[in-house]
Amino acid sequence: MQSFDVVVIGGGPGGMTAAMTLNQLGKTVAIVQAEHDSIGGVCLNRGCMPTKSLLKAATAYRYAKQGDKYGLNLSAEKVDLQRLRTIVDTDLDALRGMIAGMMGQAQVEVFYGFGSFQSAHEVMISQADGSSQVIRGEQIVISTGSETVELPFAPFDGQHILSSDQMLQNTEIPEKLLIIGGGAIGCEFATLYHTFGSEVTVVEALPTLLPREDQEAGRALQQAFEAQNITVKTGVKVEQIKVEGGKVRVKFDGIDTAEVVDMVLIGVGRRPIIDNLNLDAAGVVIERGAVKVNSAMQTNVPHIYAVGDVSGGVMLAHAAEVAGQMLAKNMVEGTSVSLADGAIPRVAFSHPEVAGIGASKESDGIRSFTMSVVPNGRSVVDKVAPAFVKLFVEEESSVVAGGIIVGEAATEMIHELALAVENRLTLEQVGKTVHAHPTHSANVATAVHMFR
Ligand SMILES: Cc1cc2nc3c(=O)[nH]c(=O)nc-3n(C[C@H](O)[C@H](O)[C@H](O)COP(=O)(O)OP(=O)(O)OC[C@H]3O[C@@H](n4cnc5c(N)ncnc54)[C@H](O)[C@@H]3O)c2cc1C
């Protein structure tokens, strides 16, 4: 039996980063990765990267369609999703190549197959043809990520009722698309398909889009969507979905008329992947559907750790990545560090983009200020709506406790506020920083100077 200092189950951003850091710290490491993804996990294969590749194409298409606005005669033919898929695949292949190179340099051994516990130190790797092998780890990391949640009354069929995985394989642009769930994934697909020509409706059960964010920001995104003719229904629950005669009939709670569309995307959330891991054989405890960990990301079994989406919390790739580095140090150096939720930028790559950091609510000792309609030079020449910037500040110290931005390049601009939150910078310190002109980032400086 092959034996390693550490066996990592799941090769997404969390597992991969942990494995490479562990190897740098002198450990022999193996990664077990299920064959339906390559190393890179959901993020590279079915999440962050394919969506961003498609969103880049959507931005280019939007510019082509709106050439007039910029004084250009451009023509934009109908989008060929089949062709776009080949471009996405080229991007993903390049990324897979980069990761394979990094893995090779790091001397991390990759085993393709499905991993499950045979005992607290042994991982069985099973292949689709029924064959299997067992490897041993002195320590083990569980980083099996998460999967899409299905609605009990609307199973995915890949044709009319789709998950985000299936939507990324889709090559049809539906005339009418209804998206259930107004979180980041729902809003990104709304932007994509609206740009590609579908009539899009987003339905969210809670009162605002991006319901975990500040409500004012959610309403700002809703207004921007509605200005583009994306229909948004908030505070509305879907009660029934039926496929009839090639169309999908969607009935809402308390509303008599059903909506008839060509395709439904279910984007109601993701859950940790723990089934079939045979956690009982290792004695690992689960809490609220996720692997339970302490502040060192250690499970109840001291030599077994968990990182990324599988341990619940903020399900974002950069959170898994940074936590993976911290986890490796905890395992080797015996430290007990983990990533505070407040330090993780929260992002939606919709049009407009939304990005938040730190506090997202006023509370005792935290005050907020909203800047919503102050055009800056860059938004005028770029011909985009002025950014919405909301800041949360500690009343006594003037330390920046959080912020949220809705607008062009928000997912880039947020890092200035992240730096401020992480290092407890005051409004005055951020305000003293010279911002280049003309930039979208200057919006942050304007909001800081206007804070009352
Ligand atoms: C459509 C979409 C868009 C997204 N966009 C963004 C974005 O823009 N930015 C962002 O930060 N996050 C984004 N995310 C979230 C991000 O993809 C996840 O938070 C991130 O991938 C989690 O990393 P992870 O390492 O925990 O697990 P994962 O990336 O889920 O990787 C885990 C891997 O383990 C494999 N696995 C599972 N069980 C086993 C087993 N028993 N044996 C072997 N292998 C196994 C899985 O197949 C998977 O490949 C997006 C997600 C989706 C679905």
TrEMBL record:
Reaction(s) the record says it catalyses: N(6)-[(R)-dihydrolipoyl]-L-lysyl-[protein] + NAD(+) = N(6)-[(R)-lipoyl]-L-lysyl-[protein] + NADH + H(+)
Pfam families: Pyr_redox_2, Pyr_redox_dim
Binding site for NAD(+): G181, G182, G183, A184, I185, G186, C187, E188, E204, G269
Enzyme class of the recorded protein, top EC level: oxidoreductase
Names of required cofactors: FAD
Coiled-coil boundaries: none
InterPro entries the UniProt entry points to: Class-I_Pyr_Nuc-Dis_Oxidored, FAD/NAD-bd_sf, FAD/NAD-binding_dom, FAD/NAD-linked_Rdtase_dimer_sf, Lipoamide_DH, Pyr_nuc-diS_OxRdtase, Pyr_nucl-diS_OxRdtase_dimer, Pyr_OxRdtase_I_AS
Domain FAD/NAD(P)-binding: from-to ranges: 4-322
Compartments (UniProt record): Cytoplasm
Record keyword Protein transport present: no
Active site positions, chain numbering: H437 (proton acceptor)
S-S bridge residues: C43-C48
Free-text remark on how the cofactor is bound: Binds 1 FAD per subunit.
SUPFAM superfamilies noted in UniProt: FAD/NAD(P)-binding domain (SSF51905), FAD/NAD-linked reductases, dimerisation (C-terminal) domain (SSF55424)
Enzyme Commission code: 1.8.1.4
Annotated Gene Ontology cellular component terms: cytoplasm
Keyword Repeat: no
Binding site for FAD: K52, G115, T144, G145, S146, D309, M315, L316, A317, H318
A GO term for molecular function: flavin adenine dinucleotide binding
All residue ranges annotated as the Pyridine nucleotide-disulphide oxidoreductase dimerisation domain in the record: 344-447
Principal place of residence: cytoplasm
Extra information: The active site is a redox-active disulfide bond.
Family statement drawn from the similarity comment of this UniProt entry: Belongs to the class-I pyridine nucleotide-disulfide oxidoreductase family.
Protein name (Swiss-Prot/TrEMBL): Dihydrolipoyl dehydrogenase
Originating species: Desulfuromusa kysingii
Source lineage: Bacteria, Pseudomonadati, Thermodesulfobacteriota, Desulfuromonadia, Desulfuromonadales
